[in-house]
Amino acid sequence: MLFSTKAEYGVRLMVELGRRAGDAAPSEAEPVALGTVAEAETLPLSYLEHLVAKLRDAELVTSVRGAHGGYRLARPATEIAMIDVVEALEGAIAPMECFYIDREGRVLCSHEVDGDRACATKLLWTRVQGGVTRALAGTTLAELVEFSEQHAPAKALAGEPA
Amino acid sequence: MLFSTKAEYGVRLMVELGRRAGDAAPSEAEPVALGTVAEAETLPLSYLEHLVAKLRDAELVTSVRGAHGGYRLARPATEIAMIDVVEALEGAIAPMECFYIDREGRVLCSHEVDGDRACATKLLWTRVQGGVTRALAGTTLAELVEFSEQHAPAKALAGEPA
DNA sequence: CCGATAACCGACTCCTCAGGTAGGATTTGT
DNA sequence: ACAAATCCTACCTGAGGAGTCGGTTATCGG
Q: Looking at the predicted structure, is the pLDDT value of residue A67 above 70?
């Protein structure tokens, strides 16, 4: 399994926020309570709280405390690349433990210390890394929102005014 | 982390077999004892035994039992796609638990039962899936062997005749 | 000011699985 | 017969995923 449910739940949460924001600028949309999202997606509220905290720390959503509070996207969905979302939730995307990224975005392997021979598998993991990164960086939240609306056009959003 | 050390160790094992086979047809190459590989790659032998069993079950390597036994590639390195190796070691490559592949290679999500609305995240995971699959399917063991030899030209193989 | 609503936070549980060990049984060359 | 190897099953351990719970703080409406 490439990703855990953290990424899955977190992405669904973001999509839900994007759907409810609609065309309104994020800063003007009504904040959405986590409980509403949890119900709509049938996910455990207390678990979502942990996930949304990571998204907030990554400045992908903003929160409003107190009654009628909730969460909003920190910026328009078109400007949110999914790689930022997934990395906020799962941590850095390295195909293997021994991999890390230096400044410059180069992929390095901690096995090749002291200029010794390169990790035999580096070529492969670099390619995989590239494939995943490209897919995630090339997808915006707005695309997912649109996709989800196309596939559930008749479905009303729970909690909307009748 | 996308993959565990199972993939990492297993791939290194395969590369090692490929290096030692050299230009000889796999069926003629001397079988390589696991202990030799373990030593060369400084990996625990008893753990490698588990991994190589999976590779054998996937018919990627063949074994010779008894004294002077060992393992050989089941076919030339040019005909071994790394996706087969990684899948043998890690199991099917799905980005999420809810994903599975039907006959035809279509990606399906177990959440979209009864023709209901598609998983909001399906578009994203499908793209990631594609990125990984393309990278793995488009890389052969032969490429990795060549790559590793280019980067360790002066390094002799342990266990070779002097 | 009071109470309801919600975000916020830390601690704790449960369980799976990666990563590795251990010990034996079987096969085969010398 | 003996040694070298594969083969096989069982077991152990720690980390982390998945989720729960209880409590604190902030904010609104009345």
A: yes
Minimum distance, in Å, between the CA of residue B161 and any CA atom of chain A:
21
Query: What pLDDT is stored for residue A106 in this prediction?
Result: 67
Residue pLDDT, tens place only, A128-159: 999 999 999 999 999 999 999 887 655 555 55
Residue B115 contacts strand C, CB under 7 A? no
Which residues on A lie below 8 Å from B3 (Cβ)? 95-96, 125, 128
Partner residue facing A15 (CB), from B82, B120, B131: B120
pLDDT tens column, B84-113: 999 999 999 887 776 776 767 666 776 655
Strand A107-109 to A99-101 pairing? antiparallel
Q: Do A123 and B144 touch (CB under 8 A)?
A: yes
b/e for B42-75, b at 16 or more Cβ within 10 A? ebeeeebeebbebbeeeebbbeeeeeeebbbbbb
